[in-house]
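User: I'm curious whether this sequence folds into something compact or stays loose and floppy. Could you predict its structure so I can see for myself?
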Amino acid sequence: MADFILVTGDQAIFRPNFGQAIVTPIPGTLIGSGKAKVDGRIICVNGDEKKVIVPGCPYLTSQFNIPGIGILSIRSLAPNQKARKVKSGGKPVLLKGTTFTAKFQVLLPALSPTIPPVPDPMPIYSGTGSFLTFNFKVRAT
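Assistant: Here's the prediction. I'll summarize afterward.
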């Protein structure tokens, strides 16, 4: 089934639940590198999702509830987020699709409220997200 093509300026919306961690997500912005445009915006192709990096996101857990900071990124796309037939520059065009897998990398660990505070030992948490597109005209399969 055809879905909307992602373009420069579309957003990656991360869900706050990353396993045990609750992240205060900041949307990430896609920057396309395709050879075509939709309404003057460059389309996104396979690989452009890897450039979505969102630093400065606070997080905490039930055990480590003094907030820490980390970076959100897209780990992998769902199969329905890559066009099977439509390509640009030899790469599959990215589609809105359903849900991608996200990664939260801890930079400054959250701390326990104990004395002395204990840092969260987890370096990475996994979560999900979806795309918000501003293209409501052009679809692909």
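Summary: The chain has a mean pLDDT of 97. The first strand starts at residue 3 and ends at 4.
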